[in-house]
Write a structure and sequence with these properties.
With 325 residues, the chain is α+β, with helices and mostly antiparallel strands. It contains 11 helices and 11 strands. Strand 1 (55-58) and strand 2 form a beta hairpin.
């Protein structure tokens, strides 16, 4: 069998699996996924129809399988089976207790159809991967189902009540929210929701939710999607300021882990130092405060305003900690 024919057969089988996993599949989405033309996808669809697969084509919508048609159980490659290990470990660390239990149950069903060789491989590898818990808990112990409730709310479009303690709150505040999506960033989950009390969209961090309760109350109105929310939230960035820092080669490794976050754009090696160029968003507060950690290792070459802000911070710290006579 030629390589091209094998690739086409693999793609056709994958298209069939995609159709079984979704109610409707768009031809353009399939073309994007497999990096082929629409014409190729249409040819593959015709091949499935000629093979007796009952497909329904909806104009302007996509393709779907006739209700009741199902594939026999599929087998997994060794690489696919091993990928389950990583996913299971990530679930243990990043999902709440209820969602992790649901995921574990699903994984048990998947493992049940693995061949004995792949199953032994998965079980052996599982013990070799350890996910350490992060310093700050992602969820409070008394609310072990934040994610599962939020997901259920999004699916059923029913309101959720939470006791939420924002960064400026002395105690948890009762909020009624209508979640539209969930985001994971900077080590935490955020429920993006329309807040009834504030009459606006807010992001609620998972570790600040003290109580969560599903209600039977439908959403008050139809909301934008999470994609539309993120697009609307993205504002044009303010102009950045170019900053140049000099550091001795033996000390440059201390700046390595966070330098990209603070806008590193270039690094030039000289005989006696390394010159780091940054495009800085916050030249007044955030960037000079980060540089304070390496104050004895670096030299600020430019701009002058960064040197001034850095020196002013040092003066404020010095004055605050001078002995009082």
């Amino acid at each position: 069998m030629s390589v091209d024919i094998k690739k086409r057969l693999d793609r056709i089988v994958e298209i069939l699996i995609q159709m079984q996993s979704k109610r409707v599949v768009r031809a353009q989405d399939l073309a994007d996924r497999f990096d082929v033309s629409l014409r190729t996808i249409y040819r593959d669809i015709r091949s499935l129809e000629q093979a007796g697969v009952p497909l329904i084509g909806e104009a302007g919508m996509g393709y779907s399988l006739m209700e009741g048609y199902r594939l026999p159980p599929v087998s997994f490659t060794k690489e696919e089976a091993l990928s389950f290990v990583a996913v299971e470990k990530l679930a243990e660390k990043f999902l709440d207790e209820a969602s992790a239990a649901i995921h574990a149950s699903a994984m048990m069903k998947i493992k049940a159809i693995l061949k004995s060789q792949e199953l032994d491989l998965v079980n052996h590898t599982q013990d070799q991967i350890i996910m350490r818990k992060q310093g700050s808990p992602i969820f409070q112990e008394k609310v072990p189902h934040v994610l599962s409730y939020a997901i259920e709310s999004i699916a059923n479009k029913k309101q959720v009540q939470i006791d939420y303690q924002g960064i400026k709150d002395d105690r948890p505040q009762l909020r009624t929210i209508e979640p539209i999506g969930i985001i994971h960033e900077i080590g935490f989950w955020y429920i993006v929701a329309f807040c009834i009390e504030k009459q606006d969209f807010r992001q609620f961090r998972s570790d600040r939710i003290n109580r969560i309760q599903l209600t039977k109350t439908p959403f008050s109105t139809r909301h934008m999607t999470i994609g539309e929310y993120l697009e609307a939230k993205a504002q044009p960035e303010a102009p950045k300021v170019r900053a140049i820092i000099r550091v001795k080669p033996e000390y440059s490794s201390y700046l390595r882990w966070q330098r990209n976050y603070y806008g590193l754009v270039d690094e030039i090696k000289h005989a006696d130092h390394i010159e780091m160029h940054f495009d800085v968003k916050d030249i007044k507060h955030e960037f000079p405060r980060w540089l304070l950690m390496f104050g004895d290792m670096i030299e600020i070459a430019e701009p002058q305003i960064l040197r001034d802000n850095f020196i002013n911070l040092l003066r404020e710290i010095s004055l605050k900690h001078e002995p009082k006579i």
